[in-house]
Amino acid sequence: MINYDLKKIKAIVFDVDGVLSRQTITLASTGEPLRTVNIKDGYAIQLAQKVGVRIVILTGGTTEAIRKRYEGLGVQDIYMGCAVKTNTYDAFLEKYQLSDEEIIYVGDDIPDYEVMRRCGCPCCPADACSDIKEISCYVSSANGGEGVGRDIVEQVLRAKGHWLSNAKAFGW
């Protein structure tokens, strides 16, 4: 269980590679990276948005497949090609007048480190690098791309009383 007051969480920020997709990427013959994503992560992400928990994608990745996947789940805040994630994170907080304490950030590797040191509740997959595990409030039992998104979103929605709470939960 996440050791944090999840009732105050207003947004969950996800890295993609190694968090919502596995650490390994197949390359198409064109050189485009092909990611595998988890269906249960997708269900939880779309439900969170419906009940008012903002989901944010903050990734260094730049392929349109990322945008299409998360736009299709209703995610409005998709930031791609982020070389320095703290800059984008600051702009996001300012845009919605949010504080660090209202944010869960889920990352797995060094490019996530600075944001994770600032957010209220840093979380990571089981196969995150050791530096990230050391600063995380919660290390999921799921590896990246294998349900870590569902794990964290479900805990937040349960804490807020939104898991299986109304008809929104039973459809896409």
Question: What does the model show?
Answer:
The structure is a single chain. This protein is an alpha/beta fold. 33% of the residues lie in helices and 15% in strands. It has six helices and eight strands, in the order E-E-E-H-E-H-E-H-E-H-E-H-E-H. The strands form two sheets. The protein has a six-stranded parallel beta sheet with strand order 5-4-1-6-7-8, sandwiched between helices. The protein is globular. The relative contact order is 0.23.
List the helices and strands and how they pair.
Elements: E1 11-14, E2 26-27, E3 33-34, H1 39-50, E4 54-58, H2 64-72, E5 77-79, H3 85-96, E6 103-106, H4 113-118, E7 121-124, H5 130-135, E8 138-139, H6 148-159
Parallel strand pairs: 1-4, 1-6, 4-5, 6-7, 7-8
Antiparallel strand pairs: 2-3
Helix pairs in contact: 1-6
Which structural traits does this protein have?
172 residues, alpha/beta, 6-stranded parallel beta sheet, 8 strands
Number of helix segments?
A: 6
Give, in order, the helices and strands. EEEHEHEHEHEHEH
Please give the number of β-strands. Answer: 8
Major sheet size, sense and barrel closure:
6 strands, parallel
Q: What is the molecular shape? A: globular
Poorly predicted runs are none
Fraction of residues in helix: 25-40%
Going across the major beta sheet, what is the strand order?
A: 5-4-1-6-7-8
Mean pLDDT: 95
Distance between the termini: 26 Å
β-strand amount: 15-25%
Radius of gyration: 15 Å
Backbone structural class = alpha/beta
Q: What's the quick description here?
A:
The longest helix is centred in the first third of the chain and has 12 residues, at about 40-50.
